[in-house]
Amino acid sequence: MKRHVAETDLALFASRDLSLWKRALVGMHVRGCGRCRELAEVYRSDRSELSDVTADLPEGLDWDRLSAEMTANIRVGLAAGECVAPRSRRIAALGWRPAAVIAGISVLMAAGWWLNMPPAQTQALGRAMRSIWRGRPALVDERGPMVAVSASGIELRENGSALGVSQGPARPIAVSVSAQGSASARYVDADTGQITITSVYVQ
Predict the structure, then answer these.
(1) Is 0.90 surpassed by the pTM of this model?
(2) Residue 176 contacts by C-beta under 8 Å, 6 or more apart in sequence?
(3) 127 phi/psi in degrees, rounded to 5
(4) Domains of the chain (ranges plus CATH)?
(5) Of the residues 64, 82, 101, 114, which has the fewest C-beta atoms closer than 10 A?
């Protein structure tokens, strides 16, 4: 049984795009093989029909411009599709290793901050935290002006006098005290849901 020429080589032979040596080999085979000769003729006729169709195209057709317009239309269509139905982006889950690294760095930073605080501030912060934990007013500083936090709001005390900052009958939902001598209280209006934050700083 005679081996036939590959169809790609027959198509290139019909369009005269084979190298000289290969064209001679394929030509010898085509002369002796009826099947390959028929295929080569089909490719030749297809090529002539295609050249007739391309001759009917308008004169001066700029293929580069046409290609650029088609590319732009495709991009516009893709952008419009994004506006109508945006793709949902999955948020990657944080693995245990990065979470462990972040937790370790946080512990180290907190320990470094705590160890580098002046002893007086460390003690004042400890007292304030204990007072808050027990539900008592937290005194931030015992020297000079003091900031006190109670259930009604924030007070600035000095020399037996007190100046209070509150929101009337509203009770603070969160209170924060710093060792540097400041306190903040957050209130929420039950009717409007508006949040008010009051802060007192002692120099």
Answers:
(1) no
(2) 183, 184
(3) -65, -40
(4) 1-52 (1.10.10.1320), 118-201 (no CATH)
(5) 64
